[in-house]
Amino acid sequence: MMTSKGQIAMNRASMQDAYPSRIYSRPELLERKDPVVYNATINQSEINEDQLRFYEENGYMFLDSFFDQEKVQTWKKELARLFKQCESLERPEIIKEPGSDEIRSIFAVHRDDEVFKQISEHPSIVSIVQQILGSEAYVHQSRINFKQGFTGKEFYWHSDFETWHVEDGMPRMRALSCSIALEDNHANNGPLMVIPGSHRTFVSCIGETPDDHYQHSLRRQEYGVPDQDSLRHLAEQGGIVAPTGKAGSILLFDCNLMHGSNSNITPDPRSNVFIVYNSVLNKLNAPYSGKKPRPDFIAARD
Fold first, then answer.
1. Residue 161 domain flag
2. Residue 52 maps to which CATH number?
3. Burial letters for 211-249: b for 16+ Cβ neighbours within 10 Å, e otherwise?
């Protein structure tokens, strides 16, 4: 009888899997097969050629104080209201910290909250996204990541695309994240760290995906996590950078960029809104893991 891994390998071959992961007995480093920037001809006024070139080379772009403080204050009020509302609720979209009942993330905020829906549709963000992706885009996923002062836990190193590919069926690297800082992000309160240039290498991870993996991975991920040797290699090549700035700054980063963040043991909270945009030309297939798709609040399939 064929093993489950053997069946998955056959399924992936039939689906023309360009980025196989979680099927080999040891990690593999695979060269990226897709463009980073899909339209290099500037067609908007938010970023210039140098910034677009930097994004293509490094896999990310940081725009300090992109939004003014008046907007930020409005968004922070909604953030506080939403956090307070969700403290007493038990919904799949509300993810708690491992080992506690403190809120770690709230998903599908662009779907369920009018203020964050408007942020996801902001013309300035959308124009940059369409420049990079070379097409119209839709929101694949949205969430708020909270890191409360003293207690906010880490997010271990990972490539988003590895999970979106294996567990959601995203076929190619034609997606990006926009992280909007709603609190000042500084060196000590657990800012997002990135490995420049790592977006050009796909780390094929080990371990077969469990059923309903998202129920555990959104609190602490164990599968789809890169091995230490691969991380060391990528960091030796590109170094580690933590873009920091005032509330209202945005960080755009490629779907395959290796990133993570430390825990927050300072008194200062760090809350960021993440909007994931996927090209309309890159719609999801069946998950490459062979498992059932994750729920719509994690990966929009419409």
1. yes
2. 2.60.120.620
3. eebbeebbbebebbbbeeebbebbbeebebbbbbbbbbb
For the range 220-226, what are the long-range contacts, defined as Cβ-Cβ under 8 Å and sequence gap of 24 or more?
220/98, 220/156, 221/156, 221/158, 221/163, 223/22, 224/21, 224/22, 224/158, 224/162, 224/163, 224/166, 224/167, 225/156, 225/157, 225/158, 226/27, 226/157, 226/158, 226/159, 226/162, 226/258
* pLDDT tens column, 184-230: 888 888 788 999 999 999 999 988 877 756 555 554 556 678 999 99
Question: Contact 141/107 with Cβ under 8 angstroms?
Answer: yes
Tokens matching residue 282? 């890159």
* Position 76 pLDDT exceeds 80: yes
Q: How far apart are CA 204 and CA 257, in angstroms?
A: 14
Helices (H), the chain: 4-14, 49-58, 69-87, 109-112, 114-120, 123-133, 160-163, 214-217, 228-238
% the chain with pLDDT above 70: 88
| 26 in a structural domain | no
**CA–CA distance, 8 with 281 (Å, rounded to integer):** 25
- Examine residue 289 and state whether it is found in any structural domain, yes or no: no
CB of 186 closer than 8 Å to CB of 302: no
Domain assignment present for residue 287? The answer is no
pTM: 0.90
Q: 173 is in which domain, residue-wise?
A: 31-279
Name the domain count of the chain.
1
State residue 302's pLDDT score. Answer: 79
